[in-house]
Specification:
The complex is a heterodimer of chains A (about 250) and B (about 290). Chain A is an alpha/beta fold and about 250 residues long. Chain A has one domain (about 5-250): 3-Layer(aba) Sandwich (Rossmann fold). Chain A has helices at about 5-25, 30-45, 60-70, 110-120, 135-145, 165-170, 175-180, 195-205, 240-250, and strands at about 50-55, 100, 125-130, 150-160, 160, 165, 185-190, 215-220. The longest helix of chain A has 18 residues, at about 5-25. Chain A is globular, with a radius of gyration of 17 Å. Chain B is an alpha/beta fold and about 290 residues long. Chain B has 12 helices and 10 strands. In chain B, helix 2 (about 30-35) links the parallel strand 1 and strand 2 (about 40). In chain B, helix 1 runs parallel beside helix 7 (about 135-140) and helix 3 runs parallel beside helix 5. The chains are: A alpha/beta (about 250), B alpha/beta (about 290). The interface of A and B includes residues 135 and 139 of A.
Amino acid sequence: MKTYNIDTSKKIRQSILAMSYNSKVAHIPSAFSMCDYLGVLFDKVLSPKTHRFVLGKPFGAQAYYALFAFYGWIDKDLSKYGSLEPEWRYIIQNSHPLVTYIDESMGNCLSVACGIATAGLKVFVNISDAAFQEGTIWESIQYAGAKQLSNIIMSIDNNNMQALGKISDISDIGNLSSKMKDFGWESHECDGHDIKAIQKVCEQILHSERKKPIALVFHTSKGRGVSFMEGHPEWHYGILDDITYNKAIQELK
Amino acid sequence: MRKWVDKYLAEVADTNIKIKLIIADVGDFPEFSKRHPEKFINAGVSESNAVGVAAGLASAGYYVYIYGVSSFFLYRAYEQLKYSVSYWRKNVTFIGVGFGWKYFNIGIGHFCPDDILLVQGLPHFEIHTPYNLTQLKNLLRQSSENPRYIRLTANIVNNLTIRNFQDCPFIITCYGEMARTCISIVESLNAKGYNVGVVPFSCLNKDVIEQEIYNNKQSKFIVIEDQCELGGLYPLLRDINANIISHICLPLLPNLVSSSREDLLKGYNLDEESITKKILEIIEHE
């Protein structure tokens, strides 16, 4: 039985770095931002056998691949990452067998998840906080709350960063957890890198009465784990070279 | 003609459990919603979300019908129609109303002269323009592997039959609501001894159109449509080298001073009187 702990957290980050370095793919800080809470959710609450996966945060897909491999849901050999094979594209695609839907156009995916939930299936959605600057997502939040789609679990990567700076500086979205409650969701929030805190949230979900859709607001830090990436927006599109790769790997030992 | 959609879809839903009808707070369906409340969804005033919900339901194996105003769905929810429905060939049928000039009298926000053009940009979408009840009934009863756009004609005729106009020197081509107008014009002209035919299409399928043109390859075509010149029937006919001698259509940007749809149609020669006059000019000139 695999468990997500501090050691796993480092190994997953090392895998993310290796995939990114080998395939010259960016969005590493996004992957670091979400890998801890996803890792614990996959450990305690979610799997592709129980939930349809809808990914509204397809960038930083290295995290999905590393975690899917860690839990034995896909081939452990990650060297194909970034190839043109449908299951190994650098941004995870709709063609991936573990994914029901992705949308790299921000804010759209929750509506599709609402449709899947309306069909009576359990669905997991992962989304970035920047997507809340879009209008469509608020239509879907209203809909899921109004229709009491309690079979939706949505994790929000609340790292307060978007492509060109801080969300709070560019167009602030405020307190997401309270907004979700206002729209009829059950909402939980915690530090998205604190494994014990995430495990506690998982316990709360598992014991929830489940009368409402569930929002999980994870306060995260983009680039967490590598000092020269964390809090440095220029690494959003940054590509690792030999020097930065080795430096990053050293920090994770 | 919503009442027919209500009736036919209620019948379809009697035997098919995997059906959903979604609206965005426009159009009531008393029969369907009474007989199948669990299959009827009012998503609220949220077209983009409604299309995403439809895509999600379709991915779970449902046949999904969306009913709404064409301009609201095609302009506001185009991204969702493309990324969530069209590319992935989801089993979603959008039944649109108020396209073209229909709601022009309400305001420019209801003017939709490019609905077909937009749907022609959505891969896999079939475009249906039924002009009689049998066609509409069959469309709603039959499923398709493709997403579909059904232009719901307001003045649908009961069971319009068209006689074979093969070997006519002049043929009017049209579809949907314009079919009724054009058939009436041709009947009137035929009664006066003019040899003019009419070929209305119920589906803007290139293969069907190509066959019809091939059957009338000696004819000269007059295209009448409630669509802007960039999309619709005209480019399809042009691409298969039909001998088009006139095209009467809607403007992309109408005269905003026009106060009614009648003004608009007359201003752009799409009313019955103007079309008749134009056809007579063509016949005499040729």
